[in-house]
Amino acid sequence: MGELQVKPAQAEKVNLLGLSIDKLVDFFATLGEKRFRAIQVVKWIHQSGVDDFSQMTNLSKPLRAKLTARAEIRAPKVLQQLDSVDGTRKWLLAVAAGNAIETVYIPDGNRGTLCVSSQVGCALDCSFCATGKQGFNRDLTAAEIIGQVWIACKSFGQLQLPTTGKNTAARKVTNVVMMGMGEPLLNFDNVVDAMNLMLEDNAYGLSKRRVTLSTSGVVPALDRLADVTDVSLAISLHAPNDQLRDQLVPINKKYPIAMLLDSAQRYIERMPDNRRKITIEYTIIREVNDHPKHAEELATLLATVPVKINLIPFNPFELSDYQRVSNNALRRFQQILLDKGFTVTVRTTRGDDIAAACGQLAGSVNDRTRRAERYRERAVRIVG
Ligand code: SAH
Ligand code: SF4
Fold first, then answer.
1. Is the pLDDT confidence value at 127 over 90?
2. pTM score, whole prediction
């Protein structure tokens, strides 16, 4: 049998967008270039928003040509950008393999929080979550994760060429929360690389207090997190006891509450700043976990843990029978915790008109064309 002659495929270009500083330095070493070149390029990408090597004027022409041949800077493609009347902005982004994800920006006074996705879908199947209902599709690459921040910052004019002088753009994205689609700790390495770029002075330079990883409790991964980063931590608790949490957050059967809270506490104890607290997220659902006895039980459970509690009224979506909590039950629940001395905030629903609320993110374009259509119709009404 004659041997099949296969022409060598052209080497795939390296996408520099998602490379941490260390990985970029390694890549430049393969080109025979020094570390400071990598730093220059990180700044061009993440501080100036440049995705074309020919604009990187402090690099020599031969180096620019070499980079153009070997590398690229490729963010997800923006399929839609929707603006809500309340200032919330949502992007539907195409990522590789025909998938789409969603990213949401929520302004609040001086703060602007970007809610970033880490996976297409989610395997953990929490019973109240639209992302979970769509099942797991794949992990996002580090470029697709940091690309969400890059796109948002660019859309607000936050990334500027040095030739425009001092960057005077008002900082719109001040905070990032890994609370979009997916479970960040199940995409550990890519999420860590992306978060470290968010913190990196030569990139976005956000303080570690302003970058938050939210997890439903993948304990072994959480145990490793403090080795590689020191971002803020949010735990999606949603129930004060294992029996109830088993029903809402199935991964609880593997890693129950006591184990999870221990791990979370170990994480913040390793942080240099001992004033840091764990944010406890509690999606409050009518007649499921909104009873005063749940609030009492939660207070007892968290009595010795340094926490602030964030109550998230359940946002209904098509495939769920759960209902939004009543205002009375919500106020009562909050008051019980306040009376016990906890800091308790209630997350107000934003971006209602563009379906941008927590737990409603489900941006697959393939099987949700009708939904995408509806977004488009609304977008025209809101923007146009
Ligand atoms: N997988 C991670 C991060 C993404 S979910 C986690 O579970 O923490 C981000 C937050 O949205 C979680 O606190 C989650 O419980 C909440 N959430 C999911 N579905 C929701 C819904 N329908 N209404 C309100 N909050 C929801
Ligand atoms: Fe996954 Fe978080 Fe949704 Fe649970 S709440 S299914 S962990 S995205």
1. yes
2. 0.90
Listed in order, strand segments (DSSP E) in 13-160 are 14-15, 71-72, 77-83, 89-95, 99-108, 111-115, 119-121, 136-139
| Closest C-alpha among 318, 271, 1, 44 to residue 162 | 44
| Statement: residue 372 has pLDDT above 50 | no
Q: Are 40 and 59 in contact (CB under 8 A)?
A: yes
Position of tokens 């800077």? 73
Cα of 190 from ligand 2 centre, angstroms: 18
Q: Which atom of ligand 2 is nearest to the CA of 131?
A: 3
Which residue has the CA at smallest separation from atom 3 of ligand 1? 179
Pocket of ligand 1 contains residue 215 by CB under 6 Å = yes
Nearest residue to 16 (alpha-carbon basis) of 68, 73, 59: 73
Other C-beta atoms lying within 10 Å of the C-beta of residue 350: 20
Catalytic residue flag (residue 33) = no
* Residue 212 · residue 234 · CB < 8 Å: yes
**Residue 129 is a catalytic residue:** no
Task: Of 19-33, 86-100, 285-299, 350-364, give the lowest mean pLDDT range.
Answer: 350-364
Query: Which of 269, 297, 358, 377 is labelled catalytic?
Result: 358
Better pLDDT: 7 or 259: 259
**Contact 379/88 with Cβ under 8 angstroms?**
no
Q: What number is the average pLDDT over the span 234-261? A: 98
pLDDT digit string, tens, across residues 150-189:
999 999 988 877 765 555 556 589 999 999 999 999 999 9
Q: How does the average pLDDT of the chain come out, rounded?
A: 88
pLDDT of residue 10: 61
Closest ligand 1 atom number to CA of residue 214: 8
Q: How far is the CA of 119 from the centre of ligand 1 (A)?
A: 13
Ligand 1 pocket mutation pick from 106, 115, 129, 186 by most atoms within 8 angstroms of CB: 129
pLDDT tier at 329, thresholds 50, 70, 90: very high
Which bound ligand lies closest to the C-alpha atom of 128? 1
Greater pLDDT, 293 or 371 = 293
Length of the chain: 384
Pocket test for ligand 1, best of 106, 134, 186, 283 (most atoms within 8 A of CB): 283
Q: How many CB atoms neighbour CB 221 within 10 A?
A: 17
